[in-house]
Amino acid sequence: MNMQLVSVSSKGQISIPVSYRKALSIKEGSRLMIYSDGENIILKPVELPSEESLLSVLEKAREYAREEGFTEADIESAIMESRKARKEST
After folding, report:
1. What pLDDT does residue 48 have?
2. What is the pTM of this model?
3. Minimal CA–CA distance to 44: which of 5, 16, 8, 13?
4. 33: nearest Cα among 25, 43, 21, 24
5. DSSP codes joined into one string, the chain
6. Average pLDDT in the 41-55 region?
7. Based on the number of CB atoms within 10 Å of its own CB, is 83 exposed (0-12), middle (13-18) or buried (19 or more)?
8. What's the pLDDT at 1?
């Protein structure tokens, strides 16, 4: 796909050219991930998982926890440890 020049509005907004929107199936309300390496910006369309998909993953996690013998207290402890480690690394 060829490069196209776009302008940034006073609110920091850009318009994605129609050729890119069509090629990538970007519609009103589509979600985009934005990456930057300090010099370049990359926009990547992302699809959020459905509620059904999330519930399916959650049920698999619950089943795994039961099979491994994890208790609710074990899981809460692991969450707290993870949050503490993340906070300390910031």
Report:
1. 86
2. 0.54
3. 16
4. 43
5. ---------TTS-----HHHHHHTT--TT-EEEEEE-SS-EEEEEE-PPPHHHHHHHHHHHHHHHHHHT--HHHHHHHHHHHHHHHHHH-
6. 93
7. exposed
8. 57
